[in-house]
Amino acid sequence: MDHFGLSEDLAELRETVAAFARDKIAPVIGDFYARHEFPYEIVAQMGSMGLFGLAFPEEFGGMGGDYLAHCLAIEEIARVDSSVAITLEAAISLGAMPIFKFGTDEQKRRWLPDLVAGRKLAAFGLTEPGAGSDAGGTRTTAKLSDDGREWIINGTKAFITNSGTEITVLVTVTALTGPDEISTIIVPSGTPGFTVAPGYDKVGWCASDTHELSFDNVRVPVENLLGERGRGFKQFLTILDEGRVAIAALATGLAQGCVDESVAYARQREAFGSPISAYQAVQFMIAEMEAGAQTARLAWRDAAARLVAGLPIRNAAAIAKLQAGEAAMTNARKATQVHGGYGFMNEFPVGRFYRDAKILEVGEGTSEIQKMVISRELGLN
Fold first, then answer.
1. Comparing C-alpha atoms, which of 232, 229, 236, 235 is closest to residue 148?
2. Of residues 166, 347, 364, 377, which has the active-site annotation?
3. Per the database record, which ranges form the Acyl-CoA dehydrogenase/oxidase C-terminal domain (predicted)?
């Protein structure tokens, strides 16, 4: 495995996670996927390995690493399965990270130890049925009670990952707290009036947890405000920028997984008396796939390096998300073609990859949104 540009510690991490994905996830995840079942056992193993704590300091039980380490783990897991990869990505980038970045000392002490250890999961309630790419069109409201001691929340959120598992402990919700004022508020699981709908019947990511959430006069203490009142919009833009780097790493993993599976299949599948790997049409198709995966990897690592260095990342994150999402979709289509009829069978990983790839051009900002961000950075608005 090529570790060019990685420190010895990061190279070792990548090898360890790759081995875990290959030996522990790959043999069993197809059955979880077919049953649309959340893989609690795998999540627990990732927790014991410290994967949920890679990007957090040791004072909260983390591994003292950074976002690059987090993304390396996500890419290696996504090489064999995206459901597990998105569970890890969302748990950190969307679940624990908002509390780490914007929470009070008390909020951090209360929630982070379990989240960082992977014992519990948190979700980020941003998207609504009528507000996806236009996240600023939030309609969920949060009003102070007459005595000023509670927030009263009403509204609906859609497509929320990690929001309904047995170990989900909270959802951070974006809501209107005044005219043109969006804030973020922590809503613990089980709060009266907070309802988690049955899981979606999804095209892909079938072993991950995704629900619609509704809030009917949900009351939480005023202290559950996360960060400053009215700063929710800026907060979730920061979270999304960082999350897009992680999603780009996930998409790169899927793109590389398509290469891995196609190379192995082409070597053993024979047609017209020779392995299909001997035919230039197949060789060129796989070579294009490899080039796409490597380009995506360079893009997300560039964005992650900027993030770790404390530099602005909005443009780099958008480029990485756009490039990697499109590489994943292209490679999934080509891998299915290399496999022929077997690529259309769910028993082959590439069939699962094909179903999982499309959301990577949609989730956490569509490809069109990424192009808008890049255009604006070029001064074209």
1. 229
2. 364
3. 230-378
